[in-house]
Amino acid sequence: MAIAPYRPLGTSTPADSILAIGSPGEGVVVGTENRLNAGRVVQIRIRPDGTWSYLRELKQGTADDEVSGTSETGDRMGETLAAVNTAPNAVSTIASMRLAVGTPGEGLGTATRAGAVHTFSMAGSAGLNDRWIEAGDGDGIPGTPGTDQQLGRSIHFTATRLYVGMPFGPNAAGALYALPMSNVTQGGTVAPVTTYKPGSGGLPPTAWPSDTPLDRRSGTAARPSGPALGAGPDGPPHVRRPVAEPKPSQVCRFPHQHQPTFGASRRSRPSRPVPLLIQIAGVRAS
User: Fold this and answer.
1) Rounded distance between C-alpha atoms, residue 149 and residue 263, angstroms
2) Stated pTM of the model
3) Segment 162-207, tens digit of pLDDT
4) What is the CA angle 45-51-53, rounded to 5?
5) What are 175's strand-pairing partners?
6) 193 to 162, 217, 226, 260, 267: CA distances (angstroms)
7) CA 54 to chain centre
8) How far, CA to CA in Å, does 22 sit from each of 64, 81, 228?
């Protein structure tokens, strides 16, 4: 889910809110075919008294409608959401109310689960205000769509940028792209994009180690086979670094640890003992 404050015309404060609810596991009927796990998003408006009203449904739909893309089996549209009101003290407009929808299961050409991001206005119709973002399509994310890259598995809006994670490639340890607002707005010009990846811009060259990773398709534990790259609880094996033996006075246990893939969302995992100073550094970095 993602929520942003909303100020209707004729009001003095943004007392309302617009909430987007993702349903990535929902089937979407196209013609007579139910395309499982295609996914969709529903938007509702919430008022100060707690009442709410339905606004609209967002889905890729069919190739014949105004919305970019086509609902396909396994797209998982709405698995991640990010919302922002870029001018919360002003009357809300189509331009100020922004929503990004991650579709990490999107297949592009022969690349399965390449991933894509769809941006919309939370205050306007879907088809007239959407913009489709994929690797190499001219919006600023470099490269070409690749199998299992899962672009859009993590996304975050600020008032000026949309941050888009690509956890599984083409960079071995993943990457994060900061797209200016004009790049993700219908009809906006393409401005330079900032890329964050391990080993550049002051970031450490390798990712934080995790416990045994899971296979992203089966959900079962994957057996490490030497030093392999990747990361995430349901991603490919990763580089496994030796774990230093901690002193008893420096050991603590947290219920969760950061995931090692750069650009991937955090998920709950069992913890392992690690030096206290390292844990503190990780918490401060959060």
Assistant:
1) 11
2) 0.72
3) 999 998 877 778 899 999 999 999 999 999 999 998 888 788 887 5
4) 40
5) 166
6) 10, 31, 35, 23, 27
7) 24
8) 23, 7, 33
pLDDT, tens digit (0-9, with 9 covering 90-100), for 13-23: 889 999 999 99
**Stretch among 55-59, 210-214, 221-225 having the lowest mean pLDDT:** 221-225
The residue type of 124 is G
**Preceding peptide of 170 cis, ω within 30°:** yes
Helix or strand holding residue 280 (H, E): helix 276-285
**Sign of the Cα pseudo-torsion (176, 179, 185, 190, in order):** negative
End-to-end CA distance of the chain: 21
With a CB cutoff of 8 Å and minimum separation 6, the contacts of 136 are 142, 143, 144, 145
Identify the helix (H) or strand (E) that includes residue 194.
strand 194-196
> 């033996």: which residue's tokens?
245
Residues 137 and 131: beta-carbon distance below 8 Å? no
DSSP string, 236-266: -----PPPP---GGGEE--S----SSTTPPP
CB 77 within 8 Å of CB 40? yes
Question: Is residue 132 within 8 Å of 68, Cβ to Cβ?
Answer: yes
Please state, in angstroms and rounded to a whole number, the distance separating the CA atoms of residues 216 and 233: 8
Strand boundaries in 16-69, DSSP class E? 16-23, 28-30, 33-35, 40-46, 52-58
Q: What is the distance between the alpha carbons of residues 167 and 172, in angstroms, rounded to a whole number?
A: 9
